[in-house]
């Protein structure tokens, strides 16, 4: 009895932060289930709110890159769309396994609204070992892990297999996940999608320094532009 009360109290405190880095999955919209190892009770963890620092904001931003460029900071979980001199829109992102160790300079080569999802063979095999069967193709829709929009990143005219996409699990923004590339809240990816054209330059900053030297500084929220726009 005492151990059950302790577990229930601990679960209540941890509900909002249950999805720690590396534990979240890109598959399916449902909140994760937590099994109590001391009983037969299964509990549902309450999805956490997206932390304030990962909500869309206009920031004061200095860089030598041109307006319209996208800079993805995988370490700090931010994506920047450069607006003009000293200004960028900053979005919170989640970074999947495929994006952990990748960096480079690419371009948006293709865009899709409510894209279909084709999980890689390696992912299907991994999930099958865990007892979950993934389809070869999942049609676009509200339950699709790629969310409302996808921007496919190309290098030299070839698909890199990396994507910027939405998610049906907004509570994973700001985290590392077991699957996926660069994910955004659906409302944010729709906002970016409407502005980033085919050919948009995308700089992904991460391990390996393959993106080369990138000069930029996030100087914090631009209160005036955040409130009034412009």
Kindly describe this structure.
The chain is of the alpha+beta class and about 230 residues long. The chain is built from 5 helices and 13 strands. The strands form 2 sheets. Strands 7-11-10-9-8-12-4-5-6-3-13 form an 11-stranded mixed sheet. The longest helix has 13 residues, at about 1-15. The protein starts with a helix and ends with a helix.
Which secondary structure elements does this structure contain, and how are they paired or packed?
Blueprint: H1 2-14, E1 33-35, E2 42-44, E3 57-63, E4 70-73, E5 78-84, E6 87-92, E7 94-95, H2 97-100, E8 104-113, H3 121-129, E9 149-155, E10 158-165, E11 182-183, H4 186-193, E12 201-205, E13 216-221, H5 223-228
Parallel strand pairs: 4-12, 10-11
Antiparallel strand pairs: 1-2, 3-6, 3-13, 4-5, 5-6, 7-11, 8-9, 8-12, 9-10
Strand content: 25-35%
Share of residues in helices: 10-25%
The description of the largest β-sheet is: 11 strands, mixed
DSSP helical segment count? 5
Instruction: Give the class from helix and strand content and strand pairing.
Output: alpha+beta
Q: Could you give the order of strands across the largest sheet?
A: 7-11-10-9-8-12-4-5-6-3-13
Q: What is the 3D shape?
A: globular
Spans of at least 5 consecutive residues whose pLDDT stays below 50 are: 1-45
The N- and C-terminal alpha carbons lie at a distance of 59 Å
Radius of gyration from the CA trace? 19 Å
**SSE succession:** HEEEEEEEHEHEEEHEEH
Q: What's the total count of β strands?
A: 13
